[in-house]
Structure formats: structure tokens, C-alpha cells
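Hey, can you fold this one?
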Amino acid sequence: MGGHLVLRRAAGDGKESAARAVGAVQEALDTSLVRGGAAWDAVRGARVGPPTAVRRWPWALAAAALGAAAGGAVAVLVRRLAGQDPPGAQEPEELEAVVDRPDSLPPG
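Sure. Predicted structure:
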């Protein structure tokens, strides 16, 4: 009975290996079809290579400007929120040092 399990495992491993091999062959065939098509286009005199460049710099410039404006707005917002005094804080003109109070001096 143990030999039967070994045969089943070997059959399963063989199927996985065959599937991997078929996948690799299919990928190689797809690649060769693409390259062969490009070679045939070159033989016929057609343009071969990457697609022509598209003018993307206006979009990139607009995205950079929008990002800078958003970053500036966030910086202003953070500065305003962080710069606020906590509730109940005294104004600087109202602050009085303990040593300046007449009742804080020792009798004498």
C-alpha cells in the first residue's frame, strides 16, 4: 500500500512539472511571435521600436503646481493650528511673575 502512495505522489509531481513546462513553452512561443512580427515589420520597411513620444510635460507641470499648492495649504493649516494658544491661556501682557507681586515678599 505504501508503494501506491509513492506512485500517486510521483504522478502528481509529474503533472505539476508538465504544467510548468507547458507554461514555459507557451511563454517562449508568445515571445517569439512578438519578436518575429517585429522582424517581419522591419523587413517590410515599417517602423519598429517603441511608440512615439506623447507630450506629457503639460500634465506633469500642472501636477507639480497642484502638488505645491496643496503642500503650501497644508503647511499654512498646520502652522495655524499649532500656533494657537491652548484654551484659558493668559495673554503675554497679563503675565506677572511671582516675585513681582507685593504679597509674595516676606514680611519684614
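Helices lie at 2-44, 57-83. Let me know if you want another pass with a different chain boundary.
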